[in-house]
Amino acid sequence: MILDPLQQLGRKGLAYFGRLGRGHLFLMQTLAAVPGLVLRPGLVIRQLYSVGVLTLLIILVSGLFVGMVLGLQGYNTLVDFGAEESLGVVVALSLVRELGPVVAALLFAGRAGSALTAEIGLMKATEQLSGMEMMAVDPIRRVVAPRFVAGFISMPLLAAIFSIVGVYGGYFVGVGLLGVDDGAFWSQMQAKVDLNDDVYNGVIKSFVFGFVAVWIAVFEGYDTVPTSEGVSRATTRTVVHTALAVLGLDFVLTALMFGD
Amino acid sequence: MGHSRLIEIGVGLFVAAGMAALFMLAMQVSNLSNSISGDTYAITAAFENIGGLKVRSPVTVSGVRVGRVDAIDYDSRAYEAVVTLSIDSRYNSFPEDTSASIFTSGLLGEQYIALEPGGSETNLAEGDRLQLTQSALVIEQLVGQFLYNQAGKQQE
User: Fold this and answer.
1) Deepest in the core among A8, A34, A149, A207, taking most CB within 10 A?
2) What is the rounded CA–CA span in Å between residue A159 and residue A170?
3) ipTM higher than 0.85?
4) Mutate to test the interface with A, among B1, B6, B7, B25 (most CBs of A within 10 A)
5) Which residue in chain B is spatially nearest to A91 when comparing CA positions?
6) Residue A201 and residue A48: Cα distance in Å, rounded?
């Protein structure tokens, strides 16, 4: 009777560490299968379409609106100090350093990550994955690795598109509607945004986030309990875990990159 | 067949758009296009107080950007800050007695070094040290001085 909660705790702990270990072993297997994809680029291209191209629309629209809001809010704050000329710096730095990689990763998890988990999870639930194994086709090579590579390639591109669209959204609001000087907007931005410190670090962030987001997505799908409830839970977990991982990692990366 | 071709074109456009966005971030948004690249030569200048000058702050002549601050060190023998400036080698005809001052752009803006050419016949070369320097204005000192003066006036 007294041991019951303790047993429960132990079982939960073991299950948790078991999942953690499986996740990393799974990552090793996936990475080992990646070089083999050079021979079959068609698989990756098809996944690039569903992971990258189909995510493009939400990235474009969100980027535009995030940039416009940044322009509006930044202007209202800066105009009190007579510094509305710095609007370009504010918009570009927030997008390139933080919002581009982070928001793009969150949208990526919602749009592409959940779809990946549901797809792979359903393949497992309908025993397509075991069917492949029966035919001596390695599902990690055939199904998981192409999706992993496609996600890893797409994320930095999506984040860059998000940032640049956001900058133009801020430009549209700041210069077009609120009357900030056109030349000052760009020249201050170019003077203050550094290629190495800001742009490259943002790109590194988006690579890391892409890696984590797509890893969580394919693992949750592959490790799902093969029932309809299991698939739905795995899909939810993908979005929640990716969001937590991205935001936590963002703090660590920001502290490493900009916290000198 | 037509379907997979459409997919390929879509992916191609997507990757091209992503690359173009990265390229634009580098060229249009960041300082790559107006950074000083290519050949530079280094000169040094010693200041009593550099205020808020940073590495990579601009160096200007008549308001035109000709270089940037490369390094800031402290000389513990002379009790001075030693600033290394790297100047674009297109601008290689500054007289030896050029002076350097630290100014602030705008009221709260960043600090930069302004060079003022002198009248000497010989030009500055790699490794030379500027003899005439003017320290940064530290706003606390100014305010302190002002308050001191005001107090002095009231006593009279």
Assistant:
1) A149
2) 16
3) no
4) B25
5) B29
6) 24
